[in-house]
Write a structure and sequence with these properties.
The protein is mainly alpha-helical. The protein is built from 11 helices and no strands. The radius of gyration is 22 Å and the shape is elongated.
Length: about 280
């Protein structure tokens, strides 16, 4: 797909979709270049006044230790967007791979995988993630894997329902009658026709993962100092809530704008119509 086609598709989005696309692109750009355009080092104590308001030197004021909020926000967005994107990619890859295996494999494999995923999905995702983080720690790699594993069962159920339905269609039966192997059936006949519906689910999983990561960080089980994501910025500045400090309002608004932007874009893309 060429850039011109992408621009035309973006132009056909309804207003809500364009707003969502703009918000998503904005946070992607911030995640990529944010640490390099930050006016101060994110951990530097640059202001003697804590919870200072916005000024020419500090656009979003200072936090509870006198650090520049804008610099920490630009740095924290990289972790929130980056970790969430990696986690949703891992969850979608594992969930879809297992779903394809269940759809084209022997019945006992389908039953085994389905019952295992039903067991995992019966556990609330936040409780499941809290238990795993408490047991194994919250390093960058472990945190990403734990969040990804938490959302594998949900992705598996969606992908399996799509794959099982497609595997019963005539063109797949014809390929099976030609003697095509299970790998060919899964990757060539079934998977390409699952992509579009799966993208909508992946977008929703991304939103859930952003909120889960922010929630874990707010509880102190997410990224550990000196690293900080948007949820950590909210947690560490809760003492400024009573006075409405920008140090707590700014990261909360950032989380909200990112999740709302993704939801608006998904809704517009799945509607398949323009204004």
């Amino acid at each position: 797909m060429t850039m011109a086609n992408l621009v035309r598709r973006a132009g056909r989005l309804p207003l809500s979709g364009r707003i969502g696309l703009a918000l998503v692109l904005f946070w992607i750009v911030v995640a990529v270049i944010g640490p390099w355009i930050a006016p101060y080092p994110p951990g530097a104590f640059v202001n003697e006044e804590v919870f200072a308001g916005a000024s020419r030197a500090y656009w979003l004021g200072s936090d509870f230790l006198g650090r520049d909020v804008l610099s920490r926000l630009l740095s924290g967005a990289r972790f929130t967007v980056g970790l969430s994107a990696i986690a949703v990619a891992i969850a979608a890859g594992i969930g879809t791979g297992l779903a394809l295996t269940a759809a084209v494999g022997p019945r006992w494999i389908d039953e085994l995988l389905s019952r295992a995923m039903d067991t995992l999905i019966s556990i609330p995702s936040k409780i499941f993630a809290l238990v795993l983080v408490a047991a194994f720690g919250s390093s960058l790699v472990l945190l990403t894997l734990i969040i990804a594993i938490t959302y594998v069962p949900g992705n598996f159920r969606i992908a399996r329902s799509l794959a099982v339905g497609l595997a019963k269609l005539d063109y797949v039966e014809v390929a099976r009658a030609r003697g095509e192997g299970r790998l060919h059936l899964a990757l060539v006949e079934v998977l390409p026709n699952m992509i579009k519906p799966l993208f909508a689910d992946i977008g929703l999983r991304f939103v859930f993962i952003v909120l889960l990561l922010s929630g874990l960080s707010f509880l102190g089980l997410g990224l550990q100092p000196p690293d900080a994501d948007l949820g950590s910025l909210v947690r560490e500045n809760t003492s400024g809530l009573a006075e409405g400090a920008l140090a707590i309002v700014a990261p909360a608004v950032a989380i909200a704008s990112l999740t709302v932007g993704v939801n608006l874009l998904i809704d517009a893309a799945t509607q398949g119509k323009a204004e």
